Amino acid sequence: MANATAGTVSLNLPGMHAGARDVVRLGMVRSRVCCYRARRQGLVMCAALSGNSNEDAVLGDVVSKPRRFPRVVGMGSKLIGCGSAVPKLEITNDDLSKIVDTSDEWISVRTGIRKRRVLTGEESVQGLAIDAGKKALEMAQVEPEEVDIVVLCTSTPNDLFGSGTQVSTAIGCKNAWAFDATAACSGFLVGLITATGFIKGGCAQNVLVIGADCLSRYVDWTDRGTCILFGDAAGAVLVQATAAEEDGFLGFDIHSDGQGYRHLNAKSCGGVEEVLSSTNGSLNFPPKKPAFSFIQMNGKEVFRFAVRCVPQSIEASLEEAGLTSSDINWLLLHQANWRIIDAVATRLHIPSEKIISNLANYGNTSAASIPLALDEAVRCGQVKGGDIIAASGFGAGLTWGSAIMRWQ
C-alpha cells in the first residue's frame, strides 16, 4: 500500500495495469483514507491508512465517486403518478403529554412535530401500502396489469419474509415481479433508484415504488426522546419508461456507512433458553421466540450526520444533473426533524418557501415520508408539471442519498 505522502506514489494492486500504478495523490478525503488518481487511466482509488478503531471515525465521511458509465442507457424514466395513505388514529403532542413527561411546546420546538398517525385495530402497514399503490396507479392512469415490478420499501413488513408479493397481488399487479427493499428511512429513495435502474436497463416499462412503515410498533412509548418522533403511513409513485431525451430522473447519489449502526438501530433481541439437560451443556437450544428491541437512537449524532452528509449528497446529484441549487423548484427531504430540514436548506441556500414539508402533521414516517409529502404537494397543486425536485433520504444503517427529479 502506498504511503500517504504528497506527490507521485506507486500502488501495486492485483489486476492493475502497469501504466496505472503511478498515481497522483488527490488528498485526504477522510480519516485514514487517501484518494489517488491514476495518471494514464483516470482511475480514482481510495486507500485506507493505518490508525485506531472505528470509534473515532467521522460518520458518513465519504466522497461521491465519478460515474464510470452514463446513467441513461437507451431510455429514460419519469414519475407520472403518486398516492398515499395514513391510519385513522391521530395522536397529538397533548395526547403524548398524558403518558410521558413532555408538552406540545417541548416537542414542537425541538422537532417541528405536532401530531402523528398510528395504526390500530384491523389496520396494517400492508393495507396502507395497498391503498397508496392503488391511488398512484389511478393518478398515472396505468392499469395494475401493466405494472412490471413492484418495490415495497419497508423495514416493518407484516411478514418476516416480506410483504411485497402480497401487496402486489392485492393491488392486482398479476404480471409484476414484487420484492421488498429494506433501508429504513432511506428506503423509498433506494426503491426509486432501483426502479429507474430497471427501466433504463430495458427490463421494465412501469415500476410501482411504495414506501410504507409502522415504526409505532417498535417505539418505547415511555421514552420521550423517541416516542414523540414517529408515525405510520404509506406513499407510492409510478415510475414509467420514456424516451431518453425526456428523462425525468436527472441524477442521484447514494451511500452507506455501517460504523453509524450503533447510533440508530432496532436490534434483534432473541436469546436462548436455558440449556436442555439432554444436551449436556453442549448446545444453547432451543432458541427463544424472536423479537426486536425498541428503536434506539443517539439523536445528537444522527443530527450531526444528517446536516453534514445530506447537503453533500444533494450537491453531488446536482452536479451529475448539470444543475445548481438555484435550479431547484422544491426541496423534499425525509421528514425526520424540522431542525435538520432547515439546516440542510440553509447550507444549500434554498429559501424556506421552496421546502416541501408535512412533518408537523405526520412526524417521521420512515420510508413513507418522501412519497407522502410529495403526494400531498402534487394533489394540492403545490408541485406542478416540469418542476425540479431535489429529494434526499437518510436514516438507519447508516444510509443516505439523494435524487434530482422532474415531476412528469
TrEMBL record:
InterPro entries according to UniProt: ACP_syn_III_C (IPR013747), ACP_syn_III_N (IPR013751), FabH (IPR004655), Thiolase-like (IPR016039)
UniProt domain Beta-ketoacyl-[acyl-carrier-protein] synthase III C-terminal: residue ranges: 318-407
Domain of life where this protein originates: Eukaryota
GO MF: 3-oxoacyl-[acyl-carrier-protein] synthase activity; beta-ketoacyl-acyl-carrier-protein synthase III activity
EC number: 2.3.1.180
Beta-ketoacyl-[acyl-carrier-protein] synthase III N-terminal domain boundaries: 179-258
Record bears the keyword Lipid biosynthesis: yes
Example of a GO biological process term: fatty acid biosynthetic process
Reactions the enzyme catalyzes: malonyl-[ACP] + acetyl-CoA + H(+) = 3-oxobutanoyl-[ACP] + CO2 + CoA
Parts of the chain that traverse the membrane: none
Family from the record: Belongs to the thiolase-like superfamily. FabH family.
Function summary: Catalyzes the condensation reaction of fatty acid synthesis by the addition to an acyl acceptor of two carbons from malonyl-ACP. KAS III catalyzes the first condensation reaction which initiates fatty acid synthesis and may therefore play a role in governing the total rate of fatty acid production. Possesses both acetoacetyl-ACP synthase and acetyl transacylase activities.
Protein name: beta-ketoacyl-[acyl-carrier-protein] synthase III
Natural source organism: Rhynchospora breviuscula
